[in-house]
Each structure stands twice: as C-alpha cells, then as structure tokens.
Amino acid sequence: MLAPMEDVTDPAFRLMCKHFGADLVYTEFVSADAIIRGVNNSLRKLQVNDAERPVAVQIYGKDIPSMVEAAKIAEEAHPDILDINYGCPVKRVAGKGGGAGLLRDIPLMLRMTRAIVDAVSLPVTVKTRLGWDCEHKIIVELAEQLQECGISALTIHGRTRSQMYTGEADWTLIGKVKENPRMHIPIIGNGDITTPQRAKECFDTYGVDGVMIGRATFGRPWIFREVKHFLQTGEELGPQLTFGWKLDVLRQQVKDSVERLGEHSGILHIRRHLAATPLFKGIPNFRDTRIAMLRADTVEELFAIFDIVEARYAHLPPSEIYVST
Predict the structure, then answer these.
(1) Any idea which fold 11-237 has?
(2) pLDDT for 47-90, tens place per residue?
(3) Which residues are catalytic?
(4) pLDDT tens column, 290-325
(5) d(C-alpha 94, C-alpha 139), whole Å
C-alpha cells in the first residue's frame, strides 16, 4: 500500500504507484476544517480517479463535529475507503490536537471514531502510532478499542509520536496486535519498509495482512514492482530495472507534475522525490550534480542534467554505477 503523504501522494504519483503494483493508494491527508471551509486546495485533494481504485481518502482534525462533517463531504467524492489520521506527528497537526495528538486523549479519539463510522456508509479505517511516547505504548489495548468502534482495518506505524521519524520502527508491538486472538480486522504495518526483503520479513515475522510503504517511494515508485516480484518468486527483480529505465520513470514523474501544477510549481513539487531517490545514491562526486538538479527551475534545465547523468552511467551495469569514477 502507498502511504498517505502530504505534498507527495497527489493523483499523478498515485497512478504511477498503482501502475507499478500498489494494491491500495491513499490521498494526501486533508484537514477537516479546510474541507468544511471549502478551501480549494484541500477540496482538490479529495478528487480521485477511477484508474487508481481502490483509493482511500484520509482526513484529520481535532474535534468531533468538524470531523463528522468533513467525513460526509469526503464521502461525496466517492473514495473506496475513508481513513482517519491519528498518526501525523508534526507540531502544526499533533500540537493542535489533531493526528497523533489524539493519542493524548484516547476517550476523545474513540468517540470521534465511533461518530465517523456511524456518519458514513464507507468502510472507515484508522492509521495511528504505538503511542505518544516510549512510556505510553498503548497500541495493543487501543487496537481493540478502535475495533470496537467499528473500523474496518487498522494501520500501525511502528514509532511513537515523540520519535517522529527518527530511530528504527519497532514492529514487535505491531506483531502483538496481530497475534491478539480478539482482533479480527486486518492489521497493516508501516515503518521502514525500504526493500523487498524487509517487506517479506515483516509479513513472515509479524503476520500482518498488509504493509504500507511511505518515504521509500520518493523517487522510486517502482518499489512496488520490486516487492511484488520478491514476494512471488523469492528473487530480486534484477537487471530488468536498469539505470536508464529508472531515469525515464523520473522524467515521467517530472512531466506529470508539471502537467498538473504548471512548470514552476511542478518543479518545486518534484524536488522532494529527486532529493530522496536512491537512484543516485553512492555515485562518487555527485554532490554538485545533485545540487544542480535541485536548483533547476525549468524542465529543459532539469532534463539536460538528466541527459548528462544518463550519458555517463546508463551504459554501465547497475553494480558498476556506484564504483565508477
């Protein structure tokens, strides 16, 4: 599954991940207050395409009335699933009582969840974390409570809110939730799925029903194809995904972003993917080239840099790209 990520999981990127094998994709998370106020940018985030189904819309907020109203509006966009964000750790969300901030008020979280389940006809799911901090890892008990509210599935990120995105995700408690004989809804694990091997390990070790991939998709939407192939065959996908092929995918991401947002905003939007993609990782003396990519203001300028990189490295087998001088 493709995790919901702000400024990342826009329609073009969701469709690309679907093309590469994602079974379920999520929109960027959307503020309940912004939905109610009719903020155009937030309403655009609710738009889904039949080609990306099944697709989930994720909302967040801090009070029950606005979340219920936003859920009803989101339902009118006809997603397949409505997901509630109880996991976002950033200060502007959690610090104001939304996202992971609800982990400090479990009674409110449960009342909110039950009210949303009762208000819409869509399947309602939840994404949350292990707890607020290491002294309050409450997910095993919380999972049962959320299930009793009527949710259809639960996604657990293997960190606390206080960890943000630092350290390693702890999957042991995710496994304990799945092992709980009283749990009968699907349990989806999230956190540090960066390789096909790790995805298989999480399925085999912790018994989860699904894995959600987030930051590892930046500049690498083909990770879903790699994971699917490894799960099915036990082998890495290998030389079919050449350096030149992957660079072409990045080119298409740039084109899709610019087509949707315009050249200036599209280039800004794609920089997160370019900065994080593992495609250029390990190439010696690449720092100046990476900086030039992230400073490029036009498609022509960015693609000219891509062409130089491809001319230098595309002819090499993948194993040699990272040792070439």
Answers:
(1) TIM Barrel (3.20.20)
(2) 898 999 999 999 999 999 999 999 999 999 999 999 999 999 99
(3) 88
(4) 999 999 999 999 999 999 999 887 665 554 444 433
(5) 17
The angle at the Cα of 159, spanning 156 to 160, to the nearest 5 degrees, equals 105
Surface-to-core class of residue 25, CB atoms within 10 Å of its CB (0-12 exposed, 13-18 middle, 19+ buried): buried
| 235 conformational bin, left if phi > 0, alpha if psi -120 to 50, beta if neither | beta
pTM, to two decimals: 0.90
**Interval 34-44: pLDDT, tens:** 999 999 889 98
Domain residue spans of the chain:
11-237, 242-321
